[in-house]
Specification:
Helix content is 43%, strand content 18%. The protein has eight helices and nine strands. It has helices spanning 3-17, 23-30, 34-50, 73-80, 90-102, 107-114, 119-127, 150-155; strands at 21-22, 55-60, 63-68, 105-106, 131-136, 144-148, 172-174, 180-182, 190-191.
Length: 195
């Protein structure tokens, strides 16, 4: 099989898969090295882009998936009479952020960071397949651990978690009564002196 045939066959296999398919699996299918799969995938990605195809190749962690371009979402919704999905609440975005940046995490950790009960929000994120259970922590009660999914990467157009924007480095914080606090190196907080 020459390079052009591998690219076309790769497109067919990824399309037929529907779900993301791993680089290692594709390597086995075509009996080529993972680096060759990645090179063929890049060629396919460019070909789809140059021909203004309605689909694009997404890399999700160590796997690939073909998906429709977001430019054509309006037409796809009309064609399939899709109801608009309920957008995520700000609480859901907060919980998703805590999980994405700290995974795997327990519900107790998320609630400690947010200061409120998160069970309903976690259920919603599980239903939307943005997070998944990642086993249990070896502590009394064996609490569940949560992490993000490939669907999370796809929805936020990320190749992997390293594409997440860096967290801001806050030097000052505001306490409950609105006083500005300076956070010294030793971690103790003291209100700033008023001028």
């Amino acid at each position: 099989m020459n390079k052009t045939e591998i690219v076309s066959a790769l497109e067919a296999v990824i399309f037929a898969s529907g779900d993301p398919i791993g680089i290692d699996r594709l390597s086995q299918v075509f009996d080529i090295k993972p680096e060759q799969v990645e090179a063929a995938a890049e060629t396919l990605k460019l070909r789809l882009k140059e021909t203004n195809s309605g689909v694009e190749l997404l890399r999700l962690d160590n796997s690939y998936q073909l998906a429709t371009r977001t430019d054509y979402a309006e037409y796809i919704k009309k064609a399939f009479d899709l109801k608009r999905r309920t957008p995520l609440s700000s609480a859901a975005f907060e919980v998703l952020s805590v999980i994405a940046y700290n995974q795997p995490v327990t519900r107790a950790f998320i609630e400690q960071v947010r200061g409120v009960d998160c069970s309903g929000v976690i259920t919603t994120l599980l239903e939307k397949e943005l997070i998944e259970e990642r086993g249990r922590l070896e502590l009394p009660g064996r609490p569940l651990l949560y992490g993000t999914t490939k669907n999370f990467l796809r929805c936020f157009s990320l190749s992997d978690l390293s594409d997440l924007p860096p967290l801001p480095k806050e030097q000052n914080a505001v306490n409950d009564v609105g006083e500005q606090l300076t956070i010294p190196e030793d971690g103790e907080t003291e209100p700033e002196e008023e001028e």
